[in-house]
Design brief:
Blueprint (H helix, E strand, L loop, with lengths): L4 H12 L7 E4 L5 H10 L6 E5 H7 L1 H9 L3 E8 L3 H12 L5 E5 L4 H10 L7 E5 L7 H6 L6 H14 L4 E3 L5 H7 L5 E4 L18 H6 L4 E4 L1 H4 L4 H18 L1
Parallel strand pairs: 1-2, 1-8, 2-3, 3-4, 4-5, 5-6, 6-7, 7-8
Helix pairs in contact: 5-6
The chain binds orotidine-5'-monophosphate.
């Protein structure tokens, strides 16, 4: 019998009971700390997790992460690391002191790169690592154009299994793959899902999308939502509607 099984089941139960606020990360894709913090204020305390991506991090640096942490928020640092193993391991070490809870890297950087990142993330205070599989902005033709002959679904499964073997804590995938990844991966992996579009929201550059409720029912641990909240006329109301959809879907999944 597999000794790790009871612990994994406990994790799954804990995940199912998680508050809707811990299943939504708002993508702060803004050009400055001032505009990002002004936006956070407009959400009236409804959201707990904020994703700081390349646009904001390159402009504002790690000071903004400290500011968000001081205000009691959790930070998901989305730098999508993709470099040689030594450089990625160094980047993970540099991020450790920022207080970010999650950090992304590209699974397509390969096994040795992910192993080096996982080893670097053993240090106390390190973020949990998330491996990005196939970007939600890519359709099959985009992927094939990079020389990968597989469908986005097959490639996402292949990369997620590789990331799991390397000991990465979770994966970023599109809503179209979350159900199959839940079935193929061990219980306990975090599945973080962008490409979320509530009914009627503009699709923009995303290609593999679904509604918040559908992604949660298919097994997403956490949703990443940017423009449907940041560009809404009333962002606090848009966030509240998505949280309500997560809550409703979570209670029956
Ligand atoms: O790693 C990510 O967060 C990510 C991976 C991916 O495959 N697709 C994707 O959209 N994202 C991020 O999720 C957010 C989605 O934003 P919206 O399309 O505005 O909701 C952006 O900040 C992206 O950088």
């Amino acid at each position: 019998m597999e000794i790790a099984a009871p612990q994994r089941l406990d994790q799954a139960v804990a995940e199912a009971r998680t508050d809707a606020k811990d299943r939504l990360a708002v993508a702060l894709d803004f050009p400055s700390a001032v505009s990002a913090l002004a936006f956070v204020y407009r959400l009236e305390g409804r959201c707990r997790w904020f994703k700081v991506g390349m646009e904001l991090f390159y402009a504002a640096g790690s000071g903004l992460i400290h500011d968000l942490r001081e205000k009691g928020f959790e930070v998901f640092l989305d730098l999508k690391l993709h470099d040689i193993p030594n450089t990625v391991a160094g980047a993970v070490q540099s991020v450790t002191s920022t207080g970010a809870s999650l950090l992304t890297l590209h699974a397509s950087g390969g096994e040795r790169m992910m192993l080096a990142a996982v080893e670097a993330a053993q240090a106390p205070g390190s973020p949990r690592l998330l491996a990005v599989t196939v970007l939600t902005s890519m359709d099959g033709a985009d992927l094939n154009g990079t020389g990968v002959a597989s469908s986005p679904r097959d490639q996402a499964v292949r990369l997620a299994l590789l990331a799991q073997r390397c000991g990465v804590a979770g994966m970023v995938c599109s809503p179209e793959e979350v159900e199959i990844l839940r079935r193929k991966l061990d219980v306990g992996n975090l599945l973080v899902v962008p490409g979320i579009r509530p009914v009627g929201a503009a699709i923009g550059d995303q290609r593999r999308i679904a509604t918040p409720g559908s992604a949660i029912r298919d097994g997403a641990s956490m949703l990443v939502v940017g423009r449907p909240i940041t560009q809404a006329a009333d962002p606090a109301q848009a966030a509240a509607a998505i949280l309500a959809e997560i809550e409703a879907a979570g209670s029956i999944s």
